[in-house]
Amino acid sequence: MRKYFLFHYVQNIQVFKAWAKLRGIRGCDIYYRKAKEEGWRARSAFKLLQIDEEFNIFDGVTYLGVKRVVDLCAAPGSWSQVLSRKLYLPAKLSLASRTRGGDLPLIVAIDLQPMAPIEGVIQVQGDITNARTAEV
After folding, report:
1. N or C: which terminus of the chain has fewer CB atoms within 10 Å of its end residue's CB?
2. Please, which pLDDT band fits residue 6 given cuts at 50, 70 and 90?
């Protein structure tokens, strides 16, 4: 009896997920809802935050004293959004509080699809395999 119940339960979950996908209903997972509540564009932002928390990957992105990052295949822009919040916005606030000038981080997001603007991110719509995109 229990075996039948588990099979029936799993089968119903699969049917529900298929039904939800057909109807365009999203949000079946906790990180999707959490991302929307916190203003992230996608749940993948949490993965980048987790990686940075564990390995401090944003500490080593300086070149000639300026932080520089390129986000390839960036749409919908959640990783660029994380970069903006972790690198650009704190630098902008610290520059505003200081009297001497300095350079802000350079964040470039490249994708074939257009994205909504993100503060501190230069967006390039183009193919990363095309030399013309690199020239921009």
Report:
1. N
2. very low
Q: Which two tokens stand for residue 35?
A: 């991302």
pTM of the full structure: 0.73
Q: How far apart are CA 49 and CA 43, in angstroms?
A: 11
pLDDT digits (tens, 9 = 90+) for 11-54: 556 666 676 666 666 556 788 889 989 999 999 999 999 999 99
Any residues with CB less than 8 A from the CB of 127 and at least 6 apart, and which? 112, 133
Beta bridge partners, 70, equal 108
Separation between Cα atoms, residue 71 and residue 75, nearest integer Å: 9
Across the range 83-92, mean pLDDT stands at 91
